[in-house]
Sequence to fold (197 residues):
Amino acid sequence: MLTSKQKNTKRIFDISISIIVLPFVIFPLILLLFMAWLSTGKKGLFAQDRVGLHGNLFKLYKIRSLKGEGHTDILDIKKNETRFGTWLRKTKLDEIPQLFNILKGDMSWVGPRPDIPGYADELKGEDRIVLSVKPGLTGPATIKYKNEDALLLQQENPTAYNDEVVWPDKVKINKEYVKNWSLRKDINYLWSSFTKK
Fold:
């Protein structure tokens, strides 16, 4: 578990990077939000409850990529994804608004990805160490499963495969991340996320 000093260091890093990046993403963000509105017929900014620090819920911001609301199953998501939304999700540009989640303090640049209720909030025992850090835009589990949608779509039962294989592996990876946290590793994960295809 991170010490108070480590948490402060992580927060300073998050704010510093966010301030540097913000001026470069404002115009592209406005353009993408407008295009998402044209594509889906709904406002381009999408907010969804996700599990955050200590299991508390927060509103995660994304650029809308789906028609309708409440899609969580991968097959349902793909069925309701617009052509523009497919490109957004593939490039991860739909996650640009999470910069504001980071500035607000709901998220960090690096950490476990924030899940919908029913997963991280139900962790037990030692596994709950994953909830002792803020969820991240990227992290070791995110990097390993960067093609998670494609992987799940290859399975006969995507939901079962996620619950029985992918999710337990993510928990294991994220536990190791928290136990062995360092700023240097965060920088490496962030760099890898933007440089590796």
Remarks:
- The CA atoms of residues 139 and 188 lie 10 Å apart.
